[in-house]
Amino acid sequence: MVTMNRPFPLSFALSLWFVMTACNPEPPSDRGEPSDPSAAGEPHLAPVIDQEPNDRPQQAGLLVDGGTGQLVPGDVDLYRPPQEPGFWRIEGIPGGTGGLRLDAVSAGALLPDSLTTRSTLFAVRGQSDDLVAIRGSTAAAMPYRIRLTPALLPEDLPVLGEPNDLNHPLPLRGIPAAVLGFYEGGGDSDSIEVPASALRSTPAITLEVSPLPSARPMLRLYTPERVLVAEIGAEREGQGVAIPNLGPPESHESWLLELVEAEGAAVERPYTVSFYQAAAAGQRVELEPNDAPAYAMSLGGDPSELTGFFHTPQDRDLFRLEVSTPSAGSVVAAPDGETDLALIWTPPDGVPLVLDFGGVGEAESFCSRPMGAGVHTIEVSPRQSRGLGLATYSLRTRLETGDVELEPNDNPNQPTLQPISRSMRGYIDPETDVDCFSWRTIPPIDTRAAQRVEIQPPTEIDVALEVLDSEGLQVAVADRNRQGGLERITLGELPAGTYRLVVRGRGGASCDLPYTLTIH
Which of 47, 93, 209, 436 could connect to 67 by a Cys-Cys bridge, CB 3.0–4.6 Å? Predict the structure, then answer.
């Protein structure tokens, strides 16, 4: 079981929260009620900064020390943040019974029809062309006061300054990195752009969102065209969310991450987003997003092996297995000891094979299935997990050509043709697997045909060997040795006809270690 590695732990966010709370012990309430009682009753004590008209970007007033203003029905007042380096906390304190609606918007963009309801903007970036928009949450006229305080933030952490929606994401410069953000109430969301160049320098990256105990974060992944690719939400408050294995986009220049507080957080809930390398050098891992056929990960070479992750109970991982020459294909998905999984193989003809027989910690697999040329889809998904962290599994695939058994061949009427004087490879999986083969004798030409039949299993496997005639009657049987022991049947000259070899598993199984069957 893999547990979340948090380079910037929750205690860091909590410490920051307490520092901010101590610096400002009276934040505005969720209802927009004034945190400064004198501000609502006596807004005239501060200078008037609401110089109409100021409802268009080019008319926005400059915030210096804060001040007062007046909203009328349908009014919007625009201000520029202080033009100084750093970040600012901007509070809108209503002077009536209603609330205020604050948002940071781009000077070059149209104002949205519906702004997020909140009375505080934290980490508004100075020296920018972005604006602060103020509206009333009621149809009545309302006086208001704006209060500014510098945002004292750690100098070594980039900050998601407002605005930072999907149109204004913070660019990620490299890996590893950590970003400080703030949920500011009313369903606030923050965005980060992850360029492909930052991802191609490492096999995969892990990103984790570490919230306060009372927050319930959600993470959305988009293409640059704003197509939603994946959505991951915490199941409970205080739980972090993560993509443990984000890979580079195959056909895009970047990914866009949107960080959302699912419960509609109160003001100023800090969180950290951490990005770091997910795999050691040389280790191959499953790459997200791969939850849909359009984003299925290519398995590449043959054979192929990788480590996969289930980051939510609803996760599903899809892979592409490109077959150029008709082959015998084998796939093994083995979970960690706390997880149960299912394996689904869909060949080009679209008829899936669903394997869900094993329990917790048991592998699902198929061996030596005929795979025609084309793209085959492999899906691995969780059924349950006893652990509390991320679940892991390994996925192995192999393609073989030449003299190899072809499943299903468990029935003597569905045998694999066995050439004389050549060896055939086969696999016992599961332990009760039965493999059937056939060969023909044509005396007097084959006067020495079928003098000896041998099977050499791998060390971990015990098998029995049986010869049947064309009527299905047993001619001979060998079951003398245990695991790894050679089984041999010596025959006299056989009449012309078709004969069957039956290989039965007696103990042990492996989709990776073949036995060798030879007719001399």
Answer: 47
Beta carbons within 10 angstroms of residue 227's beta carbon: 11
Which tokens is 203 given? Answer: 């096999």
Rg (C-alpha) for the chain, rounded Å, is: 33
CA distance 12 to 124: 21
Asked whether the beta carbons of 397 and 378 are under 8 A apart, the reply is yes
Cis peptide before 112 (omega within 30 of 0): no
Mean pLDDT within 136-144: 80
pLDDT tens-digit profile of 276-319? 888 777 788 999 999 989 889 999 878 899 999 998 888 999 99
User: To which H or E segment does residue 196 belong?
Assistant: helix 196-199
Strand runs (DSSP E) across 111-227, as ranges?
Answer: 120-125, 131-136, 142-150, 170-171, 177-183, 189-195, 205-210, 217-222
Whether the Cβ atoms of residue 194 and residue 255 lie closer than 8 Å to each other: yes
Using a 10 angstrom Cβ sphere, with 0-12 exposed, 13-18 middle and 19 or more buried, the burial of residue 22 is exposed
User: If DSSP states are collapsed to H, E and C, what string results for 351-392?
Assistant: CCEEECCCCCCCCEEEEEEEECCEEEEEEEEEEEECCCCEEE
Q: At a CB cut-off of 8 Å and minimum separation 6, what does 74 contact?
A: none
Q: What is the mean pLDDT of residues 22-38?
A: 37
Half-sphere exposure (CA, 13 Å, Cβ side) for 476?
15
- Are residues 68 and 46 in contact, defined by beta-carbon separation less than 8 angstroms? yes
| Both structure tokens of 424 | 């055939």
Q: How far is CA 277 from the centre of its chain?
A: 15
What whole-number distance in Å separates Cα of residue 352 and Cα of residue 357?
A: 15
For the entire predicted model, the pTM comes to 0.76
- How far is 505 from 184, CA to CA, in rounded Å? 63
In the block, tokens 């972090």 appear at 240
What's the pLDDT at 109?
A: 64
- If you search the block for the tokens 């305080």, which residue do you land on? 149
Beta strand residue intervals within 151-292, DSSP E? 170-171, 177-183, 189-195, 205-210, 217-222, 228-233, 241-246, 254-261, 269-277
| Beta carbons of 267 and 185 less than 8 angstroms apart | yes
DSSP string, 493-515: PPPSEEEEEEEEEEE---SSS-E
